[in-house]
C-alpha cells in the first residue's frame, strides 16, 4: 500500500473491483496452483490489505515490509510449500494459462528456477516466476544485498539452475500491462472498462490483439481545454459561451466550440483523457456553478465518460489555468498534451508558455501541441460549423477580443505584460 509512485495501488478500483481482487481471481483460474496466498507486510499501512483478504476469505500472510525475501521464505515455510509461483499484486492482467504453462515447464526442465522474465518478449504485467523451496531457503540464508532482499529472486537467478520460458506468439508484445504509476492506472482502467463484462476474467490475448491493431492507444495523451466564460441560456442555466453572447462572464466568446472540439478528438482517440480548468463562482455571479463544472457536464452530454475528465476548478486566468494543468499533466505522467482554445486565443497562450519561464519549465518533457477549436470542428463537420464560425469572426465581440489578444501576445514577447 505504501508504493512511492502510486500509494494504495493494489486496492484501486478497476471496473468496480480492487486491483488485488482481479489478480487473485485470475490466479485462482490456474489449474495447477493449489494455494493462492497474499503475502503482505505487518506494517499498519497494509492493514487494509489484510482486512480486504479477511472480508473476501482470501488466504494471506503478514511478514517483513522491506525484506520481502524473508517474507516469502516465512510464508512458504509456514504453508510447507515445495514449489512457489511468484506473482506481483500490480499485475491485474496476469494470465492463468501462462502460470500453468510455466509450472509444467518448470517441472519438465528439472531446474530450480524458471521464468518468462529471462527472455522478455511479452508485455510487462504478465511476469511469472516459479522456484523450489530449497532455492528460496538458500537465497534467504545467503542473500546479502538490499536489492536481493527487496526483490526476492535476484540471488536465485544468479546462483540457481535457471530455465527461460518463452510465451506463445499470441502473448508477445512490449506494452505496459502493469500498475506502477498514475498513467498505468488510467490505461488499465480503460482496458477494464472495455473488456471486463462483470464476470469471468479478461482474455489477455484479446487485449494484446486489440493493442496491436490500435498502436496509439498507450501514448498517455491528454487534451487540455482552457476555460473562458459562461453565459445563461434562455432558461437561465449557465453554459459555455457562443460567439454572439452579450452577457458572457468574463468577456470570452465561442468557448463552446472548445468543448465540441475536445469531444471530437476524444471520439477518435478514446484512450485520451480531457483536463479542463476554470475557477469557481465568477465575479459578480455568486449563483453560478463553476466554469469547469459546466464544461464537464457539456462534455458528458457529448459522450465523454466522466472517468476520463479531470477537473481543475481553482485557477482563474489563462496563466493560472496553464500552470495548474501543467502540474496535472506532470503528475499524471502525460507524454503528449494538446491544448485546445479558440484561434484568436492561442497566440497569447503559446506566447505565455514560450516566454514565461515558470510555464516553460512546467511543460518540460511534454510533447505540447496547440490546436484551435475552429480547425478541429471544421475538419470533422465542416457543413455544420463553417457558416457559424464565419459569422462569429465578423461579430463585434470577436473583432474586439482579437485586438486585445494580439496586444496581449505582443506585450508578453516584449516583457511588458502584467499578470492578473
Automatic annotation (TrEMBL):
CDD domains: GT2_SpsF, YdcF-like. One of its GO terms (cellular component) is cytosol. Gene3D superfamilies: HUPs, Spore Coat Polysaccharide Biosynthesis Protein SpsA, Chain A. Signal peptide: none annotated. SUPFAM superfamilies: Nucleotide-diphospho-sugar transferases. It comes from the Bacteria. Residues 222-357 form the DUF218 domain. InterPro entries: Cytidylyl_trans, DUF218, Nucleotide-diphossugar_trans, Rossmann-like_a/b/a_fold. This is DUF218 domain-containing protein.
Amino acid at each position: 500500500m505504501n508504493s512511492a509512485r502510486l500509494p494504495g495501488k493494489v486496492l484501486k478500483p478497476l471496473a468496480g473491483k480492487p486491483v488485488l481482487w482481479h489478480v487473485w481471481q485470475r490466479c485462482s483460474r490456474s489449474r495447477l496452483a493449489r494455494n493462492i496466498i497474499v503475502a503482505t507486510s505487518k506494517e499498519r499501512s497494509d492493514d487494509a490489505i489484510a482486512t480486504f483478504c479477511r472480508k473476501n476469505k482470501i488466504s494471506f500472510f503478514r511478514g517483513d515490509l522491506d525484506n520481502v525475501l524473508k517474507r516469502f521464505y516465512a510464508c512458504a515455510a509456514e504453508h510447507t510449500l515445495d514449489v512457489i509461483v511468484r506473482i506481483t499484486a500490480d499485475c491485474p492482467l496476469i494470465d492463468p494459462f501462462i502460470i500453468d504453462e510455466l509450472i509444467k515447464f518448470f517441472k519438465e526442465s528439472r531446474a530450480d528456477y524458471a521464468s518468462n522474465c529471462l527472455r522478455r518478449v511479452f508485455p510487462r504485467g504478465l511476469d511469472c516466476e516459479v522456484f523450489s523451496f530449497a532455492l528460496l531457503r538458500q537465497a534467504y540464508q545467503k542473500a546479502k544485498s538490499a536489492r536481493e532482499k527487496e526483490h526476492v529472486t535476484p540471488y536465485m537467478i544468479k546462483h540457481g539452475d535457471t530455465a527461460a520460458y518463452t510465451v506463445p506468439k499470441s502473448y508477445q508484445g512490449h506494452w505496459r500491462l502493469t500498475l506502477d504509476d498514475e498513467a498505468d492506472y488510467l490505461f488499465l482502467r480503460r482496458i477494464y472498462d472495455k473488456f471486463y463484462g462483470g464476470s469471468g476474467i479478461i482474455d489477455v490475448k484479446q487485449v494484446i490483439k486489440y493493442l496491436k491493431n490500435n498502436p496509439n492507444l498507450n501514448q498517455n495523451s491528454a487534451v487540455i481545454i482552457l476555460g473562458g466564460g459562461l453565459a445563461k441560456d434562455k432558461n437561465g442555466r449557465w453554459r459555455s459561451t457562443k460567439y454572439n453572447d452579450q452577457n458572457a462572464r468574463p468577456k470570452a466568446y465561442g468557448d463552446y466550440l472548445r468543448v465540441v472540439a475536445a469531444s471530437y478528438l476524444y471520439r477518435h482517440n478514446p484512450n485520451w483523457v480531457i483536463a479542463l480548468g476554470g475557477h469557481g463562482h465568477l465575479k459578480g455571479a455568486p449563483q453560478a456553478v463553476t466554469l469547469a463544472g459546466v464544461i464537464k457536464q457539456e462534455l458528458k452530454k457529448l459522450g465523454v465518460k466522466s472517468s476520463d475528465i479531470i477537473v481543475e476548478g481553482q485557477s482563474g486566468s489563462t496563466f493560472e489555468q496553464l500552470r495548474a494543468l501543467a502540474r496535472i499533466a506532470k503528475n499524471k505522467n502525460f507524454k503528449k498534451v494538446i491544448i485546445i482554445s479558440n484561434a484568436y486565443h492561442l497566440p497569447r497562450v503559446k506566447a505565455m508558455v514560450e516566454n514565461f519561464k515558470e510555464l516553460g519549465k512546467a511543460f518540460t518533457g511534454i510533447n505540447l501541441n496547440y490546436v484551435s477549436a475552429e480547425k478541429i470542428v471544421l475538419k470533422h463537420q465542416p457543413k455544420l460549423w463553417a457558416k457559424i464560425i464565419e459569422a462569429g469572426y465578423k461579430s463585434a465581440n470577436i473583432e474586439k477580443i482579437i485586438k486585445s489578444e494580439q496586444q496581449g501576445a505582443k506585450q508578453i514577447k516584449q516583457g511588458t505584460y502584467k499578470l492578473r
